[in-house]
Sequence to fold (370 residues):
Amino acid sequence: MGKRQVKFNNLVPATKVTKELQNAFLKVLDSGNYILSKNVLEFEEKFAKYLGAKYCIGVGNGLEAIQISLMSLGIGKDDEVITTPISAVATTLAILAVGAIPVFVDTKDDGLINEGLIEKAITKATKAILPVHLYGNSVNLEKIQAICKQYNLYLVEDAAQAHGSSFTGKKLGTFGDLGCFSFYPTKNLGALGDGGAIVTNNKKNADVCREIRDYGQNKKYHHVRFALNSRLDEIQAALLYIKLKSLDSQNNQRRRLAIRYISHLSNIPSLKIVKADNLNNANFHLFVIRAKKRDKLMGYLKRSGVQTFIHFPKIIPDQPFLKPEYGNLSLPNARKFVKEILSLPLYPEMIIDEVDYTSKLIKNFYEPKN
Ligand SMILES: Cc1ncc(COP(=O)(O)O)c(C=O)c1O
Fold:
């Protein structure tokens, strides 16, 4: 097998889309309106419609989407929020940003929060559950919604990796009191900079989130609450509006490539593929395997020209700034998971040949043919 280079991702849009993005950018430039104007409104409407939600509020990034959501529910000092130890650190940072306490619940073999362990973590101080649809795979919303109902808890979904994924035919982000998205460039719907959104079906939640993202004003220079400045800007909104048009086809392309990986890799005893039970529900934000001798495999792939990453190399409570307080928590599954996972290259424009090459290398690593 001749050596080649397989990139993990490629964020440069296809040429056809680039022209459209350039035109949209120039239109905003010429408009003279750069903050909370027509393009943000149009994108919010389009994204809400795409998801099947009533309201969308464009914000600065995914972390602040969660922070603002929690603020809008009145969650603050000493309240407890149940969440997962495996996510981008932003999920926990948002909880800490409102003064609340993250309560970490161990994960299952697929890296998603173990809904069977949530009830044990509920106390009098618990106000909300903040699960993460890791890699675009849905948590068990049926069970989590039932727990929220029984214990009168809010549900805030971290759908930052789950644009276009669904559960029982309904889009993720629309199950909770609020759903939070990031448009960080690597996401399935990525901006050309930072961006985020909150979706909800509740008008009051939507109004409060709108106020919080914009200095707490409900009309100009009339500030009714403590707030942030976290506004999706006009340029990113205009670009996202265009990119949203191809989200489904790009997710389908990711799925096709993932299915190809699965066909190559599913019979290797030394690895397990982390995937949704129903592949049609997932957006394949990342293609993740659990691999024996993970670090050696990663090194071998790197030497063979294939770029891989680990999402995420440490559970959040073991990050240096949290370790003194949370490092002793018993989270055996999550800690084992992060030692074994490896994210393989996957992006819509990737070619099948690259999937085949990467898969062959992995097979060769575990079953060398000399
Ligand atoms: C699961 C999850 N939550 C939250 C975030 C935070 O998003 P952002 O980087 O836009 O603040 C990310 C993105 O990295 C994420 O993957």
Q: What stands out?
A: The chain has a mean pLDDT of 97. The chain has two domains: 15-244, 247-366. The pocket of pyridoxal-5'-phosphate is lined by residues 61-63, 87-88, 90-91, 132, 158, 160-161, 182, 184, 194, 196 (CB under 6 Å).
